[in-house]
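User: New here, any thoughts?
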Amino acid sequence: MANKAIGMIETKGFVALFSGCDAALKAADVSMTGWESVGSGMVTAIFEGDVASVKAGIEAAAEAAKTIGEVVSVEVIARPHEDLGKMGSFLPS
């Protein structure tokens, strides 16, 4: 994960997340590393790339997802610790 950032968006409802992911991938040079169903209708997608691209992608995702459903939270981690990759196969390693 050296010199990369990770970004996450959590929405209530898969359709909102799907729309947000589409917007993020079109708006910025990011890669989607995976998604997880959190439960109670909440789903989270994870992206990676350089810091500026991840910030731009997550902002675009949140704007698009808001038009369809509820955005629960967003987060960008600029220089994640390498051990974060051990948390799950959906995180970049």
